[in-house]
Amino acid sequence: MSTLICFALEEEAAPFQKIAAGKSGISILLTGIGRKNAEKSVREFLATNSPELVLTCGFAGGLNPDLKLGEVVF
Predict the structure, then answer these.
(1) Selection from 54, 43, 49, 59 nearest residue 8 by Cα
(2) How many whole angstroms separate alpha carbon 18 and alpha carbon 33?
(3) d(CA 14, CA 5)
(4) Whether 28 contacts 10, CB under 8 Å
Protein backbone atom coordinates (compact mmCIF):
# COMPACT_ATOMS: atom_id res chain seq x y z
CA MET A 1 0.00 0.00 0.00
CA SER A 2 1.30 3.45 -0.87
CA THR A 3 0.59 6.28 1.52
CA LEU A 4 1.06 10.03 1.22
CA ILE A 5 1.40 11.91 4.50
CA CYS A 6 1.11 15.70 4.28
CA PHE A 7 2.46 18.25 6.74
CA ALA A 8 2.39 22.03 6.45
CA LEU A 9 5.72 22.59 8.20
CA GLU A 10 9.08 20.86 8.51
CA GLU A 11 8.75 21.08 12.31
CA GLU A 12 5.60 18.97 12.10
CA ALA A 13 7.10 16.41 9.75
CA ALA A 14 10.52 15.97 11.38
CA PRO A 15 9.60 13.41 14.09
CA PHE A 16 7.60 11.32 11.62
CA GLN A 17 10.36 11.44 8.99
CA LYS A 18 12.66 9.63 11.44
CA ILE A 19 10.08 6.87 11.95
CA ALA A 20 9.23 6.55 8.25
CA ALA A 21 12.84 6.60 7.01
CA GLY A 22 13.56 3.53 4.94
CA LYS A 23 9.97 2.27 4.93
CA SER A 24 8.70 1.57 1.45
CA GLY A 25 5.41 2.95 0.24
CA ILE A 26 5.44 6.06 2.43
CA SER A 27 5.82 9.53 0.90
CA ILE A 28 6.00 12.68 3.00
CA LEU A 29 4.94 15.99 1.47
CA LEU A 30 5.57 19.42 2.96
CA THR A 31 2.74 21.58 1.66
CA GLY A 32 3.25 24.94 3.29
CA ILE A 33 0.68 26.71 5.44
CA GLY A 34 -2.89 27.23 4.27
CA ARG A 35 -5.48 25.68 2.03
CA LYS A 36 -4.12 27.11 -1.23
CA ASN A 37 -0.59 25.88 -0.57
CA ALA A 38 -1.86 22.46 0.47
CA GLU A 39 -4.08 22.14 -2.59
CA LYS A 40 -1.31 23.16 -5.00
CA SER A 41 1.25 20.81 -3.44
CA VAL A 42 -1.07 17.82 -3.29
CA ARG A 43 -2.33 18.35 -6.86
CA GLU A 44 1.26 18.49 -8.13
CA PHE A 45 2.10 15.29 -6.24
CA LEU A 46 -1.00 13.48 -7.50
CA ALA A 47 -0.22 14.44 -11.10
CA THR A 48 2.62 11.89 -11.07
CA ASN A 49 1.72 9.58 -8.16
CA SER A 50 -1.31 7.53 -7.11
CA PRO A 51 -1.22 6.79 -3.39
CA GLU A 52 -3.91 4.53 -1.97
CA LEU A 53 -4.18 6.63 1.19
CA VAL A 54 -3.62 10.35 1.82
CA LEU A 55 -3.30 11.70 5.36
CA THR A 56 -2.99 15.26 6.57
CA CYS A 57 -1.15 15.57 9.85
CA GLY A 58 0.25 18.34 12.00
CA PHE A 59 0.21 20.39 15.14
CA ALA A 60 -3.07 22.19 14.39
CA GLY A 61 -1.92 25.44 15.94
CA GLY A 62 0.49 23.79 18.37
CA LEU A 63 3.19 26.32 17.52
CA ASN A 64 1.07 29.05 19.12
CA PRO A 65 2.57 29.72 22.58
CA ASP A 66 -0.84 30.91 23.85
CA LEU A 67 -2.28 27.39 23.55
CA LYS A 68 -2.09 25.09 26.57
CA LEU A 69 -0.86 21.49 26.43
CA GLY A 70 -3.78 19.24 25.44
CA GLU A 71 -5.98 22.07 24.19
CA VAL A 72 -8.13 21.03 21.23
CA VAL A 73 -8.22 23.40 18.24
CA PHE A 74 -10.95 23.21 15.57
Answers:
(1) 59
(2) 22
(3) 12
(4) no
